[in-house]
Write a structure and sequence with these properties.
The protein is mainly α. The protein has helices at 3-29, 33-44, 54-57, 64-82, 89-101, 112-124, 133-138, 144-152, 166-189, 191-194, 201-206, and strands at residues 153-154, 157-158. A hairpin with a 2-residue loop joins strand 1 and strand 2 (157-158).
């Protein structure tokens, strides 16, 4: 094993430790399993907008946002490992973006359609998945789109409380995948338009 591989393994272990700490904190804060599950149900079905108070939404299960964030970090690390993505500055930035917004918007459910959309674009363009995993996780910036379609919109009408219908959830998945694909397309075009004058090109593409 050369020095580069050793450093890569250390990075993975440190980040796994971070995920474990977040999950452990959440379990210590809310040690009741049924309360955690109920909190996750409320968290997953919230509007996921930035102005939503996550700790109020989970209704007493204050450990749930920590567990949610920890699991998201774990998923990011696993995706890097499965796609053989080397962990550099961009990958760490994407991971910490997911970690932070795991407390206000991103959930273990609503991030996936956008991640899949970016991965689909990468595969169709015959590029290695490792080249776009950080962009895939950055694309989850628009994850509230999934929640709004899946739980709060009924083809013209809107709800203040979450409503469930398989058709709307499937529609949200399809729209999310398309949105992720579109983010990947725009992220490839925009650098030539702003000439590198934005450090967060994926954010501009998402907007």
């Amino acid at each position: 094993m050369d020095e580069t591989e050793k450093i890569e393994k250390i990075k993975v272990k440190v980040l796994l430790g971070l995920a474990a700490i977040l999950i452990l904190m959440g379990v210590c804060i809310t040690p009741n399993v049924s309360l955690i599950l109920e909190g996750f149900k409320k968290l997953i079905t919230t509007t996921a907008l930035l102005d939503a108070n996550t700790f109020m939404i989970v209704d007493g299960a204050l450990g749930v946002p920590f567990i949610n964030s920890g699991l998201l970090v774990l998923f990011v690390i696993i995706s890097y490992q499965l796609t053989k993505t080397k962990i550099g500055g961009g990958q760490i930035a994407a991971l910490f973006m997911v970690l932070g917004f795991g407390f206000c918007g991103k959930t273990i459910v609503n991030v996936w359609p956008f991640v899949v959309g970016v991965m689909l674009h990468t595969k169709l363009n015959k590029k290695p998945l490792s080249s776009s995993m950080n962009l895939a996780w950055f694309s989850a910036a628009i994850c509230p789109v999934f929640n709004m379609i899946a739980f709060y919109t009924n083809f013209g009408a809107s709800y203040t409380e979450p409503h469930f219908a398989v058709s709307r959830i499937l529609l949200a998945i399809v729209v999310g995948i398309f949105a992720g694909y579109l983010v990947a397309v725009l992220a490839g075009i925009l650098p030539g338009k702003h000439n590198g004058f934005t450090l967060y090109n994926a954010g501009m593409a998402a907007v």
